[in-house]
Fold:
Amino acid sequence: MNDELMTIDDLEVVGRRVLVRADFNVPLDRSGPEAPRVADDTRIRAALETIEELRARGARLVLVSHLGRPKGPDPAFSMRPVADRLAELTGAPVTLAPAVVGPEVVALTHRLCPGEMLMLENVRFAPGETKNDPDLVAALAELADAYVNDAFGTAHRAHASTEGVAHALPSAAGRLMERELRALREVVEQPERPLVAILGGAKVSDKIGVVERFLDLADVLCIGGAMAFPFLAAQGHSVGASLCPEGDLEPARRALTKAAHSRCRLELPQDLRLADPQDAGAQSRLLDGVEVPDGWSGLDIGPRTAERYAAAIGAAGMVFWNGPMGRFELEPFAAGTRAIAEAIASTLAMSVVGGGETVEAVRSFGLDGCVTHLSTGGGATLELLEGRELPGVQTLMRSPVGAR
Structure:
């Protein structure tokens, strides 16, 4: 499907104003008395390839993103720290617009010279962004002559800046969007065998679509993290005080039934690292088995399970991983997630790692450079893998009559 995607190779950008939708929703450090600063610039760096290529080609860049979830204009969610960090990374000035849209902002876009950058204020300051309001779409379109979407992490949302404006301007995908789609579609459409998927984190109900898809696609599916407990409970095991929402039991039962008739081998934990839920940092114990006693909570897979999952990864032709194996941010419960990360780092197979917490874990272990593709998408990654159409991607597809 990537052959049908409009890319920046298809756009004429020399001297033109190009509205670039990036994902600059980054964490801020507000701990000191000084103005907030970007605490993690990973997403800004991910957009640099597209930004620098467009600048080199003589585009006049108008950058747009959301930051946090403000309920209208709020200085605490200003794009100022992002603009400052982007200026540091590029070595070029980044002007911050006083608003998202309006006559003053239009005038600023016309004053841009080729290669210069203007960053709009937080797009969620504008009423109608999340509702894909036609008036906001028209106002955004007035700021540019072409549109580039490089925000894969928001591609599953039909918002004004991610979907609506693409209908109003010649539009294309940025380089990050291209890479994300290529890597994830390779997992779905052309996986090297055996394909091994590792899913963790919480809430089976949020990921049941992905679980069921991998039961069709993968050769081995390993389940860890809190989402393992509904599966164990559905098999009749006691889960103690482990996270196991009632609403997750039926999806887990459905997946177990499907797994029994699938060629995919479903792997569940065989041992666990437990904690006293009242004081997780004080007491932990290894459980050789999965019958969790009352008053205890499972916060990590055990070493036997980690070894089995790592062995599956070592024999894989391709690996996909989303969701940590436990509370990796607490050192007593980091071993399972670290074992998976190290196994993936050691394999020669193509590896795709997605999800905010998973990427954070890989980076915390210093292994991010050993992964073939680190996905910037969370919900967008999961929805694409489920087989859903992403609104922010569909608008970038080449029309039957050719390039726009």
